[in-house]
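Notes to self after the Tuesday call (sharing in case useful).
The group wants a holo model before anyone commits to mutagenesis around the pocket. I volunteered. Ligand is pyridoxal-5'-phosphate. Logging inputs and output together so the record is complete.
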Amino acid sequence: VDDFRKYIADIKDKLFKYQTEKRSKTYLALNENPYPFPEKLIEEVYKLIDPYKIPTYYDSPDEELLNLLLEYINSDKLSVKNLSIGNGADEIIYYLLLMFKEMKVTIFPPTYSCYKLFAKDIGSKVISIPLKEEKIPINEIENLLNVDSIVFIPNPNNPTGHFFEDEEIEFLLNTGALVIIDEAYYEFGKRSYIDWIDEYKNLVVIRTFSKAFSLAAQRIGYLVANEDLIDAYNRIRLPFNVDYVSQLFARVALKNLEFFRKRIEEIINEREKMKKELMSLGYKISNSQGNFVFMYLDTDSKEVLTREFEKKKIAIRKFSEGLRITIGTPKQNEMVLRIFMEVKKNENSKN
Ligand SMILES: Cc1ncc(COP(=O)(O)O)c(C=O)c1O
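Result:
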């Protein structure tokens, strides 16, 4: 007979362990914010903590956070009924897959790896359609997508950082598929589809506090969609999925937007500088609108560069198409650029 061991063996056989690059001093592999959550704001969180609330089961989301989120998304057509939260955007992705587990999951690689990883956990069917020159190959998939499909699309895309065009998003929505737009990097590119939610009942937008607000460790994300979908989401998710203190962190972040906006602008400036420099060195880079840059590379140059980054103990993310590097502090970005310059110099002296 099959006992539990069979299921364990099966899981080990079929599912990958989520793995990240080894932590190093210069860690540019996970698109984290290079700046700490400010101590002054941690003090603000501390002052808000009510010791009597710690032993209680605390509302997730609480009303105050919902109201601040509603203000932040700044859409006059939506209400708090269009909003809910998750333990990071990742948990939201997981729950959405669970809600629609019978539907075909469609992704467009290169894309965020967790869509496929989580879909496999849940046992959903995954269809991968590679992007062509960063575009969704609309002509090839007209008959593939329908009301049975759930589509995940990061915008800006991870790992390339490019934006999809309105026409591509419109095409996806008009197939009747459920379209999940993952705006994890929204603040670094400032283009959103939240305003389309009123018109398209098959559109969900996900966002996170992990990137722009330096809160990856606190695990807090949110989703915006039509009221019915949010109601169903709230039934599927675990009752107290985002803890009290994490919600306070998110509230304090939203009350100090000016501070974060300045930091975001600094990261954007550094990104644009990095893109320009890499381009002038002759690298093929994409027009990233996230807190990272991506360059397309053939296998040989990718290997050479990877070795150099390893030597300098700088962690970056390798893809079959190229390399993705998170924008760090100006000093870190300087180190990154120096590696590229040296590699180019060596290449040129060989030719
Ligand atoms: C596109 C995308 N979505 C979601 C996430 C996960 O965000 P969170 O930390 O909120 O789970 C990431 C993190 O890298 C991401 O790149």
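Two things stood out.
The two ends are 66 Å apart (CA to CA).
The first helix runs from residue 4 to 14.
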